[in-house]
Design brief:
Blueprint lengths: L1 H26 L19 E2 L8 E2 L15 H6 L3 E5 L3 E6 L4 E11 L8 E5 L8 E9 L19 E2 L5 E6 L4 E9 L4 E10 L5 E12 L13 E6 L2 E5 L1 H7 L1 E7 L2 E5 L3 E6 L5 E11 L2 E9 L3 E3 L4 E12 L2 H10 L15 H18 L2 H15 L1 H16 L1 H10 L4 H14 L9 H19 L42 H16 L6 H18 L4 H33 L1
Parallel strand pairs: 3-8
Antiparallel strand pairs: 1-2, 3-4, 4-5, 5-6, 7-12, 9-10, 10-11, 11-21, 12-19, 12-20, 13-14, 13-16, 15-18, 16-17, 17-21, 18-19
Helix pairs in contact: 1-12, 5-6, 5-10, 6-13, 7-13, 11-12, 11-13
Length: 580
């Protein structure tokens, strides 16, 4: 009895964990939090001069321009300033020559929907649009009277386009003996390298700090699922730190120092991350403030003080990642550039040791089979083979329990007024028949982390995004688009989302019901009713989960039914032979 209660509690707890935010937060989103302040945050040293029309800003960050928040058409905003085009096989866009901002990035290989003619995914947005989102690099001078490049710096260049084969070079002179030279390079994917060099032809020694920032205006719409982090993150001193938008609104500012490391803002599939020189100790910061009632978020780093002697030169190189969180690509950057834990830009979760290997197995099988759906089916078979000995033991125990069910029912009826003696008689019966009631629970408990890890892979990895299966499933990472309430598309109307109940979830529910029929029914009538209701509960629950997970669960049920049916048949034959 205790073991069955334990299993029931685990299964129901899993259902609650998976469904709470999938339903409650989706249909009853929390109200927007009111702005806490209409002014910029408190200053930190070193600082930069005030932006035009704004207040002084911290750490070289151009963060307080009220003019950044606008409602201009994107094309109009882009036309306001001179720009250098960006073009590669993966991205296109432009960078603003004024200030040298990287603020216009589109991903060529990713679309907003499965329709190949739908718009490209846009990662960064220029000032003047509704929600500016951009990156900027520069210098902070130890002497605040020395002009250094800022948001309004009119960089000069002879280059017109940035490609992986053609970096661009920008120059600016401050009129006091300093020449700033910036080279921006782009690799074949999403990593920009910004190399800043300063020549000092004056007679004065100067201390400079390199900085980089990513500024985001407005709180983006997030899925709000507890298994997925969307917000701010970074790796400091080899430790991953994640920060939700609402947490930063409460704390306003978080600072830390780290040797190497990186800092970023992540969406479900897209990442903007600053990767400073990994050989230096940098000062990192998360910041929130409001302008005209609009939330603004910033991540930045400030490098160590570098001495620029009179007549000398200094140079530093930092990087910006702005693109899709492809697992193998992030791994390659981590290895090639020695960026610690850069792959944690993908939220692999608590079961990282399972989630990432499962992803690599799926990715390999997909390369062989050409379909992530087929890959998940083959992987399910492989997992079943790994757990075959445990599953056999479990199914044998359940088969014996089912054969003993008449004796158990008779014993419970006969001793229903003496629960202590009934428990003693039950234990004696199980011992005599060599049945361990817990044996049926253990494999289920062991496989739960595998199931959850697979769910994470399907949910958080971009490789699964828009990955088709067959038939009407054109995106394994999205719910089954059909619903029984319009006869799977035969009736000419679209029911609301809460009535979404597709064909695959229904099939999964049927397989779950069939599997439950093979299990010995609980003696407790309340537990029996709960178990009868669970297939229906999970059918509606998984209707809103990725189709790839539903297909996996249905296929896993089919394999379990076949294995359990075979074991039960074999056990029944052995019992009959022993009785005769």
């Amino acid at each position: 009895m205790e073991q069955r209660n334990l299993l029931l509690a685990v299964v129901l707890s899993l259902g609650i964990l998976l469904s709470f935010q999938a339903f409650y937060d989706y249909y009853y989103p929390p109200p927007a939090k009111p702005a806490e302040s209409e002014t910029a945050i408190a200053l930190q040293t070193p600082t930069l001069p005030a932006e035009p029309g704004g207040a002084p800003v911290p750490q070289g960050a151009s963060i307080s321009e009220a003019a950044e928040i606008g409602v201009q058409d994107r094309a109009a905003a882009l036309a306001e300033d001179a720009r250098i085009a960006i073009d590669s096989s993966r991205i296109d866009g432009s960078l603003r020559l004024m200030g040298g901002r990287i603020d216009d990035i589109h991903l060529k290989t990713y679309r907003e929907t499965t329709d190949p003619s739908s718009p490209e995914i846009t990662v960064l947005h220029p000032s003047g649009t509704a929600q500016p989102y951009y990156a900027q690099f520069g210098w902070v001078a130890g002497d605040a009277s020395v002009p250094v490049p800022g948001a309004d710096t009119p960089w000069e260049t002879k280059d017109t386009i940035l490609t992986p084969d053609r970096p661009v070079t920008l120059t600016w002179r401050n009129g006091q003996g300093l020449e700033f030279i910036r080279q921006i390079a782009l690799d074949d994917a999403y990593m920009f390298t910004v190399t800043d060099r300063v020549k000092n032809v004056s007679k004065n020694e100067l201390t400079l700090h390199a900085y980089g920032l990513v500024s985001r205006t407005g709180t983006p719409e997030t899925l709000g699922f507890f298994i997925l982090h969307e917000g701010l993150l970074g790796v400091f001193n080899k430790t991953l730190e994640e920060l939700d938008y609402d947490d930063l609104r409460d704390k306003r500012e978080i600072q830390t120092n780290s040797q190497g490391g990186w800092i970023g803002i992540t969406d479900k599939f897209w990442l903007a991350a600053l990767v400073p020189d990994q050989a230096t100790e940098n000062h990192y910061r998360f910041t929130h403030w409001t302008v005209a009632g609009t939330d603004k978020y910033q991540i930045d780093f400030l490098g160590p003080g570098l001495t620029l002697p009179a007549g000398g030169t200094l140079e530093t190189a930092n990087r910006l990642f702005a693109g899709a969180k492809e697992v193998r690509l992030l791994d390659a950057y981590a290895n090639k550039l020695n960026v610690t834990l850069f792959d944690r830009g993908v939220d692999f979760g608590w079961f990282y040791f399972l989630t990432k290997p499962i992803f690599y197995l799926l990715d390999y099988l997909n390369a062989v089979l050409g379909n992530f759906g087929l890959a998940s089916l083959v992987m399910t078979v492989m997992i079943k083979l790994v757990f075959y000995p445990l599953a056999n033991k479990s199914y044998r125990a359940m088969s014996k329990m089912k054969l003993l069910q008449p004796k158990v029912v008779e014993l419970r009826e006969r001793l229903k007024d003496d629960r202590q003696k009934m428990s003693q008689e039950l234990m004696a019966l199980y011992k005599a028949e060599k049945v361990n009631p817990l044996a049926g629970c253990l494999p289920v408990l062991i496989q739960l982390p595998v199931f959850f890890a697979l769910y994470k892979v399907l949910f958080v990895t971009i490789e699964m995004r828009h990955a088709p299966f067959y038939g009407w499933i054109q995106d394994l990472s999205a719910p089954d688009p059909t619903t029984i309430f319009n006869l799977f598309g035969l009736l000419p109307f679209t029911p609301p989302d809460f009535l979404q109940l597709g064909l695959w979830p229904i099939f999964m529910g049927i397989t779950m019901w069939a599997q439950f029929q093979l299990n010995p029914p609980p003696a407790d009538p309340i537990q029996a009713k709960i178990f009868q209701f669970m297939p229906l509960l999970f059918t509606f629950l998984l209707a809103h989960f990725p189709a790839g997970l539903v297909i996996y669960w249905a296929w896993n049920n089919i394999l379990s039914i076949a294995q359990q049916w075979w074991i039960m048949r074999k056990t029944a034959a052995e019992s009959k032979a022993a009785a005769s």
